[in-house]
Design brief:
The protein is α/β, with parallel strands linked by helices. Helix 24 links the parallel strand 17 (527-531) and strand 18 (551-556). Helix 2 (26-36) runs parallel beside helix 8 and helix 4 packs across helix 19 (439-449). The radius of gyration is 26 Å and the shape is globular. It starts with a helix and ends in a 25-residue tail after the last strand.
Length: 581
C-alpha cells in the first residue's frame, strides 16, 4: 500500500469517514497468494516482464535472494527445497530469463524436488508474434515439469498459484511452472479480497496409502526369504520415513543399501548398512543385489546407473517395489509385488505385521565379510593430496554432521563414498540429470534453509566455473558456506572415461589454464586458501570449520586419481573393476 493511500486513510479516520479498499492489481494478488502459501523465501532475477511483480514485492516484502544468474537462482531453490522440505520458489523474466531456468527445472524433475517457478511473459495480445523477449516457455517445459500453466485471466491467478503449490509438494514432488503475461500482472482484480478456493483436481489424486493385501504379501515373502535386501532411495527421504526405516531393519535384521540420492536414509555407520549401490557402489552392496533372493525397493526408480546391465540385475530376487509414483513401478525392472504409496505409510504398515527378527545369520555374516574384505580404499602412491583424503578430513572435522552439496562427476562419487552421513536430508546432489554448476548455488539455498548448520560445497574446478558468480551472495547474505574445490585441473570423470574406454585420448578434458581461485575469492571479499598436501589441509580445515565465515579452499589434488569400484557401461553389477581387498 502506497504512502499516499495511507495518508488519505488517516485523514478519513480523523473526520469519522471511511475510504473504499484500494483495488488490487494482479501483481498484488500474486504476492498475497504467495503469503497465503507460507512462502518465506524467493530466489530470482528481475526483468521487464516481471517488473510489476517486483514492484509489488517492494511494497509487500517477502525475503528474496538476488542470484547473479537465473541458473544460480533455481539451483539455490533446489538446495533450499531439498534441505528444508518446503517448496522452493523462483521468479525469472520472459525469454532468456525463463530459458536460463530450463536446466534447473529438468534437474528438479529428475530428482523429485518441489519447486514453483514463476516466469514473466510478454503481454497476451502479442503472444505468438515473436515479440521482444518472447519464448514459449510453457511448450519448452512441458516434458520437464510436473505441470505448467499460462495465466489467461487475472481472476484465475489465486487458484492457479494454490494448485501449483499443491501439485509441486504432494505425491511425487516436482517442479510446476506458472507463466504470467505482463498484462495479467497489471490487470485489476475484481474484488478487494483474495479467497483461497477449494482444490478441485479430479485428474490429480495421488495414492499415499498402500494396499494392505500387498503389504501382507511382502511380509510373507520376508518370512520365506533367506537373503533379503532393502534398497532405499530418495523416496524414503521425501516421505520423512528414515526413522521408520531404521526401526524396520532393526526389527527384522534385513541389510540395507542406498541409491545415490537415498544416502542418509540410515546413518552411514549403521552395522546393517552396506553402502551405496550402482556404478560406483561398494562391493558388498552390489554383490548383495546380485545374490539377494528378495529385493525390497523403497522409493527408488531403478535408473541405469544403479542397475547396470538389466539382464544381470538382481537375477535371483523376487522384486518388491514401493513407490508413490505408479509410473516407475515395472518401468525398468519386472516387479512381483507392486505397492503404490507413500514410503512412510508403507513402512508403518510393514511394522504392524507380526514379523520377528529373521533367521538370516549366514546371509548377514556373508555380507559383513564382504564389507571387511573389500572396503572402499585408496592408496597414495604419488604422495600428492588425494581427493578421498580431503573428503575424509572434512568428515572428521565436521563429525559427519555437515550438509554436503556437490556437482556431478568424480568429486560427487568420492563424496558419496567417503562422507558418511549421520542424518537424513544432509545430502544434496544432482543425481538424475547430473548437472555441472549445481553444487555451489545449491549450498547457498541449503545454508539459507538451515542457517545454523555447517554447509560444505564439494565441487570440481570445471563445475565451479559454471556458477562461481554466485560468490557475491556469500558476503551479501552473510552465508558461511565452505566451498571445497577438488582441483585436478581437468574434467575428472570425462578424463577417467577417456583413460579407461578411449585409449587415453584426452580430448578437451584437461584444464591447464585456470583462474587463481584464491584471488577470485578475495575479489568477492571471501577468505581464500590453497592447499597441496595432507598436513596443510588438516590444519586449515581445523581453522576453517571453527569459523562462522564463508571460505573457499582450492585443494590441488592428484590429477590421475580415478573413482573405484566402477561398473563399466553394459556390464552387470558383479563385474566391477578396481575392487581391492
Amino acid at each position: 500500500m502506497s504512502v499516499n493511500v495511507n495518508v488519505k486513510q488517516q485523514d478519513a479516520q480523523k473526520i469519522g469517514g471511511e475510504l473504499p479498499k484500494a483495488k488490487l492489481q494482479g501483481s498484488d494478488v500474486f504476492i498475497q497468494s504467495l503469503q497465503n502459501e507460507g512462502v518465506d523465501m524467493i530466489f530470482g532475477y528481475p526483468g521487464g516482464a516481471v517488473l510489476p511483480l517486483y514492484d509489488a514485492l517492494y511494497k509487500n516484502p517477502i525475503p528474496h535472494i538476488l542470484a547473479r544468474h537465473e541458473q544460480g537462482a533455481i539451483h539455490a531453490a533446489e538446495g533450499y527445497a531439498r534441505v528444508s522440505g518446503k517448496t522452493g520458489v523462483v521468479i525469472a523474466t520472459s525469454g532468456p530469463g525463463a530459458t536460463n531456468l530450463v536446466t534447473g527445472i529438468a534437474d528438479a524433475m529428475m530428482d523429485s524436488l518441489p519447486l514453483v517457478i514463476f516466469t514473466g511473459q510478454v503481454a497476451s495480445a502479442v503472444i505468438g508474434t515473436d515479440a521482444f523477449q518472447e519464448a514459449d516457455i510453457v511448450g519448452i517445459t512441458q516434458p520437464i515439469t510436473k505441470h505448467n500453466y499460462q495465466v489467461k485471466n487475472v481472476e484465475d491467478l489465486p487458484r492457479i498459484i494454490h494448485e501449483a503449490f499443491h501439485i509441486a509438494s504432494t505425491g511425487r514432488p516436482g517442479p510446476v511452472l506458472v507463466d504470467i503475461p505482463k498484462n495479467i500482472s497489471n490487470d485489476v482484480f475484481p474484488t478487494a479480497e483474495i479467497k483461497v478456493t477449494e482444490l478441485n483436481l479430479p485428474g490429480y489424486q495421488p495414492t499415499t496409502s498402500p494396499n494392505f493385501l500387498q503389504i501382507q504379501k511382502v511380509g510373507q515373502a520376508l518370512q520365506r526369504s533367506q537373503k533379503p535386501l532393502i534398497l532405499a532411495g530418495a523416496g524414503v527421504l521425501h516421505g520423512k520415513a528414515s526413522k521408520e526405516l531404521v526401526e524396520f531393519i532393526e526389527k527384522t535384521g534385513v541389510p540395507v543399501t542406498n541409491t545415490l540420492l537415498g544416502l542418509g536414509t540410515i546413518p552411514g555407520d549403521h552395522p546393517q548398512f552396506l553402502g551405496m549401490a550402482g556404478m560406483h557402489g561398494t562391493y558388498s552392496a552390489n554383490m548383495a543385489i546380485c545374490e539377494a533372493d528378495l529385493l525390497i525397493n523403497i522409493g527408488a526408480r531403478f535408473d541405469d546407473r544403479l542397475t547396470g546391465n538389466l539382464e544381470h540385475f538382481a537375477p535371483n530376487a523376487t522384486v518388491v517395489h514401493i513407490d508413490i509414483d505408479p509410473a516407475e513401478i515395472g518401468k525398468n525392472v519386472d516387479t512381483a509385488i507392486p505397492i503404490v504409496g507413500d514410503a512412510k505409510e508403507a513402512i508403518q504398515s510393514l511394522l504392524k505385521l507380526e514379523i520377528q527378527k529373521l533367521s538370516i545369520d549366514s546371509w548377514t555374516a556373508s555380507l559383513a565379510k564382504m564389507k571387511s574384505d573389500y572396503p572402499l580404499n585408496y592408496s597414495n602412491v604419488s604422495k600428492k593430496l588425494l581427493p578421498q583424503e580431503v573428503i575424509e578430513l572434512v568428515h572428521r572435522h565436521t563429525n559427519g554432521d555437515a550438509i554436503v552439496t556437490t556437482d556431478v562427476g568424480q568429486h560427487q562419487m568420492w563424496a558419496a563414498q567417503f562422507y558418511r552421513f549421520n542424518h537424513p536430508d544432509n545430502w544434496v546432489t544432482s543425481g538424475g540429470l547430473g548437472t555441472m554448476g549445481f553444487g555451489f548455488p545449491a549450498a547457498i539455498g541449503a545454508q539459507i534453509a538451515k542457517p545454523n548448520e555447517t554447509v560444505v560445497a564439494f565441487t570440481g574446478d570445471g563445475g565451479f566455473q559454471m556458477t562461481l558468480q554466485e560468490l557475491s551472495l556469500l558476503q551479501e547474505s552473510q552465508l558461511p558456506v565452505k566451498v571445497i574445490i577438488l582441483n585436478n585441473q581437468c574434467l575428472g570423470m570425462v578424463r577417467q572415461w577417456q583413460q579407461t574406454f578411449y585409449d587415453e585420448r584426452y580430448s578437451e578434458s584437461l584444464l591447464p589454464s585456470q583462474p587463481d581461485f584464491v584471488k577470485l575469492a578475495e575479489a568477492y571479499d571471501i577468505e581464500g586458501y590453497k592447499v597441496e598436501n595432507y598436513e596443510d589441509a588438516d590444519e586449515l580445515f581445523k581453522k576453517v570449520f571453527a569459523s562462522n565465515k564463508p571460505a573457499l579452499i582450492d585443494c590441488r589434488v592428484e590429477q590421475m586419481e580415478n573413482v573405484y569400484p566402477m561398473v563399466a557401461p553394459g556390464k552387470g553389477l558383479h563385474e566391477m573393476i578396481g575392487v581391492k581387498g
